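A further point concerns the way the authors explain their paired sequence and structure data. Showing the layout once, in full, would remove most of the difficulty. For illustration, here is how one protein appears when written out as sequence plus structure tokens:
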Amino acid sequence: MAKTPTPHIGAQYGEIAETVIMAGDPLRVKFMAEKFLENPVLFNNVRGMLGYTGTYKGKRVSMMGHGMGMASIGIYTYELYNFYDVKTIIRVGSAGSLHEDLHLGDLIIAMGACTNSSYGRQFEVPGIYAPIADFDLLRAAADSCDRMGYRYRVGNVLSSDTFYNENAHNDKWMQLGVMAVEMEVAALYMNAARSGNRALGIMTISDHIITGEATTAEQRQTTFTKMMEVALSLV
């Protein structure tokens, strides 16, 4: 394809599989690729945003970082969907719990994603667009969690543009049933919808907004393997 490599991805067309599992931290991607993929091959290191393609149980799959925030994941997923013919993107990442029954290490499968970002304004819809997951992926992920015996919830998340927010109003989001906060899923779901492709966000609870509990950076990088196993079960 003439438009590859792109400004942010150094791969040639065909070097990236139709299914890509993405994480914000490129070191988490490196960990996933080395732990789960057979014969992983590095296809991207532009800006240190590592990307690998290999096989998992005989099926071709890619893994790549997407950085932090809506703007960053927006760029990478746009290029993957529109220039590399990627059909499915699954985000595995961390999230902060806004729900009393979502604890450290639990999984949240994002059915929908609210946002305080202006990312969606580019589509100029005459109202508020509600970004949602691909239902078949969501149902399969929940089934995998049940089969594997992992604690999880399915629900609405908040994709926030700000990590340090002086006026987060978390109580307002909680009143509307929002279960966790993260920073990327809404843009992923919008890009998937606009390109006619599939997306799902599976996150591990890394901290609890209500209780103040939190995990370390090392734990977030190397111990959140349950969501990775669930994502790989969808390949």
